[in-house]
């Protein structure tokens, strides 16, 4: 059975060119980039080149990039690093953030901070005006994601950034799901901090970065050496960082073609369901092109996912970080309420490198067959 992978929003396969470079770097670049000898300088050169390319990808300067182990650490460094550095006890976020943000905020809440969790509308969108209304004199941080990982809704980050410009409030966005899919310019977005991860865009797992705008202070969360300008201790993972930069370079070169392909995949998928007479609705609006979240009438998500898996289709009911949990999607609860039917019958298909139109059509046909069969029970 040839499996069809439609869960690229959870994680993505490494691009073959990235695998080749990663393997080469693992074999050849083993020096510590903090060492002054030639082997260390070789590693430092590779590290500096990767940092420069990644900074350029978001219109940042090289020193504004802090390498981390991925999106979760980047989010945690942004949130805890700000809280430990600034006076004030109020933070604004949204109800649909990734758990790396929500759980960090909940931890601060237990420590005496006051967190405002902004609602979203039924399209999964935060209103910039709600951010404005929630601002207080003691608001130290606003953290709102760029693109939602479950329904794909793209938040009004530039509008919020303009609202916060000139204030003492730090503005962070979790761009893990959007990076490599949408063009990102930190100056246009007017963000102070931005989190990304390599494994969402065909890079290796275990590597990411946090953009920290010049002039923004963060308290470090780890102590040891003086790597990353004393902001994140620990010897840098040079092979993974180099592979990360390669994956980003490929993503930027292919971004427009990917957008065209992904939108065509969505069209094929929905047309196939329509032709089969499946009743569904699409969750979310103003979406990123690679995420298709559907509420399918008459199904229960657990049995639906099992049936898809049996016929070789990998999809999910939402965030991979809550896989195995029977709790409803917090994103769909925020959009529709705790009793909504969408919470029990919504599934996320997400597209990425290696897919073909024929595979998407086959997956849609099998989805339609399973939907109709389960709806009869």
Automatic annotation (TrEMBL):
Keyword Chloroplast: no
Reaction it catalyzes: (sulfur carrier)-H + L-cysteine = (sulfur carrier)-SH + L-alanine
Coiled coil: none
Gene3D superfamilies for this protein: 1.10.260.50, Aspartate Aminotransferase, domain 1, Type I PLP-dependent aspartate aminotransferase-like (Major domain)
Superkingdom of source: Bacteria
UniProt-listed InterPro entries: Aminotrans_V_dom, Aminotrans_V_PyrdxlP_BS, Cysteine_dSase, PyrdxlP-dep_Trfase, PyrdxlP-dep_Trfase_major, PyrdxlP-dep_Trfase_small
Cofactor(s) recorded in Swiss-Prot or TrEMBL: pyridoxal 5'-phosphate
Domain Aminotransferase class V: 4-361
Iron as UniProt keyword: yes
Keywords for the protein's UniProt record, in alphabetical order: Iron, Iron-sulfur, Metal-binding, Pyridoxal phosphate, Transferase
EC number of the protein: 2.8.1.7
NCBIfam families assigned to the protein according to its UniProt record, in alphabetical order: PRK02948.1
PANTHER family: CYSTEINE DESULFURASE, CYSTEINE DESULFURYLASE FAMILY MEMBER
Family: Belongs to the class-V pyridoxal-phosphate-dependent aminotransferase family. NifS/IscS subfamily.
Protein name, entry field: cysteine desulfurase
């Amino acid at each position: 059975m040839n499996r069809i992978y439609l869960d690229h929003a959870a994680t993505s396969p490494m691009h073959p060119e990235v695998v080749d470079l990663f393997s080469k770097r693992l074999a050849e670049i083993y020096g510590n980039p903090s060492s002054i000898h030639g082997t260390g300088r070789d590693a430092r050169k590779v590290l500096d080149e990767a940092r420069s390319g990644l900074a350029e990808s978001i219109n940042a300067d090289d020193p504004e990039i802090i390498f981390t182990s991925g999106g979760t650490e980047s989010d945690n460094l942004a949130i805890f690093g700000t809280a430990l550095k600034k006076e004030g006890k109020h933070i604004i976020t949204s109800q649909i953030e990734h758990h790396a943000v929500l759980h960090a905020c909940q931890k601060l809440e237990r420590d005496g901070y006051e967190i405002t969790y902004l609602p979203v509308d039924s399209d999964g969108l935060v209103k910039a005006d709600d951010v404005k209304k929630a601002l207080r004199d003691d608001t130290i941080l606003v953290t709102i994601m760029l693109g939602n990982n479950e329904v794909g809704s793209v938040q009004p980050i530039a509008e919020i950034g303009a609202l916060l410009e000139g204030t003492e409030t730090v503005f962070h966005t979790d761009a893990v799901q959007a990076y490599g899919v949408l063009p990102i310019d930190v100056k246009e977005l007017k963000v102070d901090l931005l989190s990304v991860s390599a494994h969402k865009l065909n890079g290796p797992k275990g590597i990411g970065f946090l953009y920290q705008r010049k002039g923004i202070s963060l308290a470090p969360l780890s102590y040891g050496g003086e790597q990353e300008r004393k902001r994140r201790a620990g010897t840098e993972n040079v092979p993974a960082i180099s592979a990360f930069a390669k994956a980003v370079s490929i993503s930027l070169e292919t971004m427009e073609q990917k957008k065209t392909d992904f939108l065509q995949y969505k069209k094929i998928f929905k047309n196939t369901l329509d032709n089969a007479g499946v009743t569904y609705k699409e969750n979310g609006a103003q979406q990123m092109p690679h995420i298709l979240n559907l509420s399918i009438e008459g199904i229960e998500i657990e049995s639906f996912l099992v049936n898809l898996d049996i016929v070789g289709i990998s999809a999910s009911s939402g965030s991979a970080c809550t896989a195995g949990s029977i709790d409803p999607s917090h994103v769909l609860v925020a959009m529709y309420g705790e009793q909504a039917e969408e919470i029990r019958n919504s599934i996320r298909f997400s597209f990425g490198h290696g897919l073909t139109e024929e595979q998407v059509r086959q997956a849609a046909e099998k989805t339609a067959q399973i939907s109709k069969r389960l709806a009869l029970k």
